Amino acid sequence: MVFGWIDEQAEARRRAGLVRTLRPRPADSPLLDLASNDYLGLARHPEVTAAAAEAARTWGGGSTGSRLVTGTTALHTELERTLAAFCGFEAALVFSSGYAANLAAVTALGPHGSLIVSDAGNHASLIDGCRLARGDRQVVGHADPEAVRKALAAHAGPAIVVSDTVFSVDGDRAPLAALAAACREHGAGLVVDDAHGLGVLGDGGRGAPYAAGLAGAEDVVVTATLSKSLGSQGGVVLGPARVIEHLVNAARTFIFDTGLAPAAAGAALAALRLLEREPERAARARAVAAELHAQLTAAGLEAVRPDAAVVSVRAPSPEQAVRWAADCRTAGLAVGCFRPPSVPDGISRLRLTARADLSGAEIERAVRVIGETRP
């Protein structure tokens, strides 16, 4: 049978409790949302949605081509300038997704003959970038600067170190200053994905690299997504102007992909300006995460202390994690459910995302539902 192996894999997933399904949500969902990545509560903010609509009316529903042909508008350029200034970097380049931005940065900066040192807890997009790059790859222990140092010491040529700034599973923070020090000892570049740090960490949400004193450094390149704190869609690479120029000429996911839709660019720009005007949103997201953790642990649940806005709660097994998340949904609460292979340590979790717009009553309700439905 053609594609017969697909049925075998489907059965294996079913037996392991790892089947994934799409669940379309209505526009007016009654669920309390702790599953999305809308950390600052901006995805439905009137200023953000109005900017998206205005951009679509002005520039059209799509960008009409790749960025190098017709896909770059004045709006894209303005967004790039604003992002670079906000995050403290010389230049920025916007992509159609954070995934595409990570593939671009790692593949373009890890050519043949180079070494790419990757944290074992990195997001799939960074892992795929490492796999597609032509350089040699070495995976090191999670958040271990000494392991990074040893890997770099054994290589004589150019090298980059690749890491998330805030890891998406447990929400723990990478030791950026120590990683940068290890890189500088050996003349290596540091490429970090700030998807879960932008809008949450740093002065007014300027990101984890800014908080670590690495913004604008000539040996640091940062990627991020526009789909989390900024409530839109798309990705960005920030760094020295010569690195950005290199990506324009060498990054395949920039050269051959259709540009980001104008509506998404307009929404992200509006969200960024709103964050500049209301920097307290970043601190509020962190405070909500800390309160979630405090109440969950007080209720006897095994929750990981958050470094940003992600709070994870350990589950006994993949099957029980799925049932737990489903029971939460039945009780009116949407939570994420992370299971292998999405988690590098094989431990299944409920994944909660703190939002700056959550009230104290909503936090208490979420903790109560999670506690009452625990396996």
Can you lay out the helices and strands and say which pair or pack?
Elements: H1 4-16, E1 32-34, H2 46-59, H3 74-87, E2 91-95, H4 98-109, E3 115-119, H5 124-132, E4 136-140, H6 145-153, E5 159-164, H7 176-185, E6 189-193, H8 208-211, E7 220-225, E8 235-239, H9 241-250, H10 252-255, H11 262-277, H12 280-298, E9 310-314, H13 318-330, E10 333-338, E11 349-353, H14 360-372
Parallel strand pairs: 1-10, 3-4, 3-5, 5-6, 6-7
Antiparallel strand pairs: 2-8, 7-8, 9-11, 10-11
Helix pairs in contact: 2-11, 3-11, 4-5, 6-7, 12-14
Structure description:
- By secondary structure, the chain is of the alpha/beta class.
- The protein contains 14 helices and eleven strands.
- It has helices spanning 4-16, 46-59, 74-87, 98-109, 124-132, 145-153, 176-185, 208-211, 241-250, 252-255, 262-277, 280-298, 318-330, 360-372, and strands at residues 32-34, 91-95, 115-119, 136-140, 159-164, 189-193, 220-225, 235-239, 310-314, 333-338, 349-353.
- A seven-stranded mixed β-sheet has the order 2-8-7-6-5-3-4, with helices on both faces.
- Helix 6 (145-153) runs parallel beside helix 7 (176-185) and helix 12 (280-298) runs parallel beside helix 14 (360-372).
- The mean pLDDT is 96.
